[in-house]
Amino acid sequence: DSGVTQTPKHLITATGQRVTLRCSPRSGDLSVYWYQQSLDQGLQFLIQYYNGEERAKGNILERFSAQQFPDLHSELNLSSLELGDSALYFCASSVVRGRGEQFFGPGTRLTVL
Amino acid sequence: TQLLEQSPQFLSIQEGENLTVYCNSSSVFSSLQWYRQEPGEGPVLLVTVVTGGEVKKLKRLTFQFGDARKDSSLHITAAQPGDTGLYLCAGVESGSEKLVFGKGMKLTVNP
């Protein structure tokens, strides 16, 4: 158990809908990262937050957004969903200014029908 | 273009065999990590290497960071079925905090 929690575990929805994925980092970690993993693209970095502020952006679509709240939990919002958004979404947390070691949650499997 | 290239991408071997996985890049990394991921679960950190030429051992797993900090290898001795999984290397580019992943090597160890 990495100490990172994610909910829900599975999510099935239809095209055009909007969903919210939730992540709670390890106790004491200020940084939260979101990743998308699909079979053909591997693990793709989406966005990083540090202590409530956006720190780095990766290959995140404009239809996707995220935020980190004062209690350090984070939410990833996916809107106008398309079939191609079906993937595993992982959250990770770390101590910034460390050696980049990240601890991953169990993931949310999103299926868009 | 993938920043980190892993090879081989797939490997199926018998229990007891040895194997080596490679992770190569043209970029210099301030640190490099290896993760192992089982189907439907999140990656689990195995090791972090930070110094060029560094070698770390974790039971039957030996990790090496290249002298120029551009590549790494993972050697597994006497593989066991429990080693089955996706092995991912990930690097932090010098001057960055972003972790970039390779596509992984899917290992199957048959009993």
How would you describe this protein?
The complex is a heterodimer of chains A (113) and B (111). With 113 residues, chain A is mainly beta. Chain A has strands at 5-7, 10-13, 19-24, 31-38, 42-50, 53-57, 64-68, 74-78, 87-94, 103-104, 108-112. The N and C termini of chain A lie far apart (31 Å). Chain B has no helices and 11 strands. Chain B is globular. The model of chain B has no long low-confidence stretch (mean pLDDT 92). The chains are: A mainly beta (113), B mainly beta (111).
Question: Major sheet of chain A, described briefly?
Answer: 7 strands, mixed
Number of strands of chain B: 11
Q: How would you state the average pLDDT of chain B, rounded?
A: 92
Give the proportion of residues in helices of chain B: under 10%
Tally of helical runs of chain A: 0
Beta-strand share of residues of chain B? over 45%
Low-confidence stretches of chain A: none
Q: From the alpha-carbon coordinates, what is the Rg of chain B to the nearest angstrom?
A: 13 Å
- SSE order of chain B, as H and E? EEEEEEEEEEE
Distance between the termini of chain A: 31 Å
Indicate the overall shape of chain A: globular
Largest sheet descriptor of chain B: 6 strands, mixed
- Which pair of chains forms the biggest interface, and how many residues does each contribute? A-B, 25 and 24 residues
- Global geometry of chain B: globular
Helical/strand content category of chain B: mainly beta
Cα separation of the termini of chain B: 36 Å
Strand residues, percent of chain A: over 45%
Oligomer: heterodimer
- Briefly note the structural class of the backbone of chain A: mainly beta
**Number of H/I helices of chain B:** 0
Low-confidence blocks of residues of chain B: none
